[in-house]
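Teaching assistant here, posting this on the class forum so everyone can see the example we discussed in section. The complex has two components, and the goal was to see what a joint structure prediction looks like when all of them are supplied at once.
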Amino acid sequence: MRYLIRFLSQGAAGSVEHYDKIVDDPTITIGRATDQVLHLKDKRARLQHARIEARNGDVHISTRALAGVTVNGRSQRDAKLRTGDVIEVGSNILTIIEAPPGFDFAFTFELSPDATSDELTSQFGSLRLSQVAWSKRRLSWALAIIVIVFALIIPASGLLHPTAAGILRNTALLPDDGLWLAGPVHNKHSKSSTQCQHCHTQAFNRVKDVACLECHQTDRHVNSTATEAILGERRCASCHLEHNEPPELVKQHQNLCADCHANLPAGVELAAATDFLKQHPDLQPSLLRPPLANDGDAEWTVQRIALDDPRLIDRSRLKFDHSVHLDAEGLTTPDDRRVLVCTDCHRVETGGARMIPISMDEHCSGCHTLNFDADDPDREVPHGEPEKVLQILIEYYSARLLGDDPQATGQRLRRPGQALTREDRDRVAGEARKKAMAVAQDIFERTTCANCHEVSSTGEGGAAPWRVEAVKLTQEFYPRAVFSHQAHDTEASNCGQCHAAVESQSSADVLMPGIDTCRECHGSAVGRRNHGGQIASTCIMCHRFHTPDKGSYP
Amino acid sequence: MQESIVRYNRYRYLWVALGLCAAAVLAYALQDPQEPPNGGTALGYTLGTLGALLIVWLAWFGVRKRQYSSTAGTVQGWLSAHVYLGLALILVVLLHSGFQFGMNVHTLALVLMILVVLSGIFGVYMYIKYPLRLNENRQGAGRSDLVDQIDDIDRRAKRVAGGLPRGYGELIHSGINRTVVGGSAWAMIAGRDNSQVVLPTGDEYTVVANPGQEAALDWLAEQQSRSMDAETAAKMAELSGLLRNKRKLLERLREDIRLQAMLEVWLYFHVPLSVALLAALVVHIVTVFVYW
């Protein structure tokens, strides 16, 4: 096919100029792309908009553009072309003309006279997000200012004056410095203080020890005077951390102790301890030792003795047989026969930390009555000094002899109202004293007192020639450890699991369990319940860190 | 762009980010467990400093991409690093927090950071998926081409309607004037068609919704079925054809607007939230040390 394309354009002074282009191709492609035979500069045209080609001896124009082409004023997708047809594509007009000799097909091409350069302005509104949305810059400023004002400036105004802080904290809608809390305040602290300034005394300064010691200045928690020497540069808050989850004011971790106790300096009489299960010395009960001199005023001392040491003897000076008291058959008491259990005497203090001390009045006197005369079983001597006991006995027998007992007064009858003669009086007093001494000797040396106490005869001619050794029961066998009977099972039937009291026939026996007993339940620090169900046990579970006179923490 | 920021330099910054995460997790696992993990331990301060530096550097991308003359790496490389290190930031900051959260300014910064990263992830997804869809929808034409084609159809429709009774002119003109494209941000993103048209019914005119030019086409079809005159019928048929083509073009234009809006909308969250995060970061650091 040989095509002739005649390009028409407006020349000067209204004349029409033209130039011809000859195309030897089967097809004329029309479009906006630069590879098209007829290149349109109209944005409404597609890259490949339409094509003109011969089909079955006729010439057709066809397009795949949705807008189609307009042939003689009608929009068409495919049209047969005849001479005189006018085709419009956008603002471009093609007019079919008679093909000159030598050409198969010819048309003119011109721009529509009403085509304007701003054809492309749209009837539609905003088509881009940036035309309608807030500018990102404005949004950014707005958010940043909201954050700074509500999270920083308003709460910080409370730092200027306590009144301002109070107003902020008490006004629900205003943000206060509670927004700055990095974590919950520990239960114990939140009760005593809702004011940040109680501990944080100065802005931009770490919490000072003074703030802690204001409340914690008791020896029970910490010896405040010794703390500085021990801790050196450290502050209370270096270890006791607030605002954490889970709240852990007291460090539990093994390394707190094990770092030093793995390798103690020479001269320290402590065995290495790094883990309760793997490396911990055997338990050594602290036993009370009586003063060497038999001097009642001298202090008792404490001695730690290993459980397998033959010197492990309780020197309480009490004669006591656990096996008898715990006899399953029961015991004869003044009232009836009853079976005793451990908790009849050994009871836990409120709080569970210690046992209530054993005393004669509380725990023994129910059965161990201090009567001395079978004829008068309700009369008892006091539990106290031998002199007082003897005095009571003398008075008792004097009264009896001087009273209405004719036997006692030597069968001499008197008239009523007649006083005893001096002679009789002396004789009766002598009788009473003799009787009292006999009874006293019996209870001190053989029965009542001697049942439980170590009594020695002084042999002196004093008023009461006996000496009852003071009983001193050990209250804390393991004073360096914290042990709560309440936390363990304190049912009477369970005491025997740790204390072999049923077999013990002597109060010299130390009935404290050893480390193996503890290790039946308590294991290493690692894990929660490890090694076959053992409880993970760190040093702090039994021991306390703040021991003012011991060691120094690095 | 597209996937090249993901694969940039054989995933170089993916490896950098993974290395950073691995180091942070390892340090976290090995730290001295004498206290609950928190921002105040040695590791806590380290991770916090790292996180703050990362946030500032990530935000600096907004500056760097505008420095056309800068030779400090390519913007493509920066974006790749921005994406991967931004993802790593989540882990660094969570480890810094020791997984302790609360109603406070510290968690505010954390939440803002997570929102920024999430919007960023959305943006990366858009940049990977949407340019391709955009091209498919445009079929080689630009947006203004679509507008011009619609314009062209409108012009021709007016011309055809000119040769028909007055009602047709009203239908075509009102249909053109009341065709709505774009408008509000939501209209762009939802791609809703709120167009209307005035229908001549008897002597009156009624305004009806015209989504997809449906109402106008239905009216034309109805008139067509009544028409006896062949020439009029042909013109009606041409009008219908033009409107159907216009409907297809409008669909593509709306889809083009929707895709373009989706490509841009995440930035309206990513950028302002980033700036808010910078503010919250300052508040976080200052307040931590007010009550030290």
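For the discussion questions: Chain B has a mean pLDDT of 88. Chain B touches chain A through 72 residues (CB under 8 Å). Think about how each of these relates to the inputs above.
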